[in-house]
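Q: I'm building a small set of examples for a reading group on sequence design. Run inverse folding on the following structure and report the sequence directly after it, with nothing in between.
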């Protein structure tokens, strides 16, 4: 079979690499891909942008693609799955209507409230309905969110009502374009975050192995928020009891609620959860796609054939298949260009990829491009994600950083402590064992 992966980041490299390992798969096309996907056996890039829906449909038809998997949210929110379905093409992802779970925080909050799914208290405003007195009555800190897609930058946490009002007004004034036409003012939730990622077929759900990412740029979870500086799986914060609570209180009610609302959900569903001190799994956000960088360590642990799972989901048969996991932990360290998450320089040569390829683990590409002499150049904020495996998160971390140590380019930056919470939990468990 022929598979098309839509997107060009680290997540898409991991999805393409995983699909290419399937004995059922003859070829994987990636639109547009990166220098890493271009170098994978059985994989080739096609110069079509990930959000050019008509061109993606034409590509799938011309190339007789059997299965398309959508990586990023933008084409989903634009309705790429609906467009594929209209032409009888098999495309794994949610349709446009349920993709609003990611495309509109106002929609999501109202959905969660209506279905009794735990989440922070909130109110939604437009420029015309904005009520500064409501904001002044809130306890601090206050969370201010642009409702629409704002490339991960539309959430601000402030310590005073005046700052919250100023943030909301900047959003209404167009700081994030139309993403700020509606603004959600939300109660601040303390706790520890976890990512919970499942695949759904409209009715049934299969959870992926648990994972956790690091959103802040600098060591010790300091510095600005980013798309993600590293991730690992499994996440010890999601104990078996917490796993059950998240499935019962968040995932199943969400899939049931969407079906009841007339928009059944097929695709990857990513729930960002804040586990409250009392154990309540509050939903921070939904993403209607796989996480990046969570995909990279999770695909390294998945033993099952991803194409079989996606096809089962498209046929509504997820209850008939299972996921088989490598019991080892996997940990991915993102290497970013200098300046990330602000503007970054592009075009620097990356050294050490050949050496890294001979070490255990796997280096996934994100913002990379092939230069005129076949060299690999930086071409984006997040550049590489080095994944290690090991019997513990600590051992996986050592393998990942051995890869990082071989890779260099001008002003590369990365965190040195990915997995620190899990490793502290492992150490505490060791101590308790005596
Ligand atoms: P979101 O895009 O809604 O997940 O928000 C991005 C990040 O902001 C989350 O990963 C949290 O770290 C933080 N955040 C969002 N909402 C809240 C909240 N209500 N309380 C505390 N932190 C939050």
């Amino acid at each position: 079979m022929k598979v098309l992966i839509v997107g060009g980041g680290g997540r898409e490299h991991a999805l393409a690499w995983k699909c290419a390992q399937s004995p059922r798969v003859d070829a994987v096309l990636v639109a547009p891909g990166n220098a890493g996907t271009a170098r994978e056996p059985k994989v080739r890039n096609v110069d079509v942008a990930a959000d050019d829906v008509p061109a993606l449909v034409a590509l799938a038809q011309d190339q007789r693609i059997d299965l398309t998997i959508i990586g990023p949210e933008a084409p989903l929110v634009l309705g790429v799955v609906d467009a594929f379905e209209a032409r009888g093409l098999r495309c794994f992802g949610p349709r446009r209507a349920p993709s609003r779970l990611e495309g509109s925080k106002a929609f999501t909050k109202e959905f969660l409230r209506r279905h009794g799914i735990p989440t922070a208290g909130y109110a939604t405003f437009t420029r015309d309905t904005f009520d500064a007195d409501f904001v002044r009555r809130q306890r601090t800190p206050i969370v201010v969110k642009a409702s629409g897609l704002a490339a991960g930058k539309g959430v601000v946490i402030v310590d005073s009502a005046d700052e919250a009002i100023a943030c909301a007004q900047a959003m209404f004034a167009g700081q994030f374009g139309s993403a700020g036409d509606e603004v959600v003012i939300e109660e601040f939730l303390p706790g520890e975050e976890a990512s919970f990622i499942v695949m759904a077929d409209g009715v049934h759900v299969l959870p992926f192995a648990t994972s956790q990412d690091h959103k802040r740029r600098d060591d010790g979870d300091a510095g600005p928020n980013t798309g993600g500086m590293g991730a690992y799986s499994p996440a010890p914060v999601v104990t078996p009891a917490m796993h059950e609570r998240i499935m019962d209180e968040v995932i199943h009610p969400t899939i049931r609620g969407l079906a009841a609302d007339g928009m059944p959900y097929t695709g990857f569903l990513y729930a960002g959860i804040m586990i409250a001190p009392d154990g309540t799994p509050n939903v921070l956000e939904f993403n209607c796609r796989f996480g990046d960088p969570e995909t990279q360590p999770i695909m390294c642990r998945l033993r099952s054939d991803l194409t079989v799972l996606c096809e089962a989901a498209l046929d509504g048969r997820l209850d008939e298949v299972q996921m088989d996991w490598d019991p080892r932990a996997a940990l991915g360290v993102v290497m970013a260009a200098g300046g990330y998450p602000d503007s970054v320089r592009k075009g620097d040569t990356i050294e050490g990829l050949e050496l890294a390829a001979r070490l255990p683990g796997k280096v996934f590409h994100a913002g990379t491009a092939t230069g005129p002499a076949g060299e690999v150049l930086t071409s984006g904020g997040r550049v590489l994600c080095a994944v290690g495996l090991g019997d513990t998160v600590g051992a996986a971390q050592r393998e990942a950083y051995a890869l990082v140590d071989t890779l260099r380019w001008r002003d590369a930056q990365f965190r040195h402590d990915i997995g620190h919470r899990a490793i502290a939990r492992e150490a505490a468990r060791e101590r308790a064992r005596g």
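The chain has a mean pLDDT of 96.
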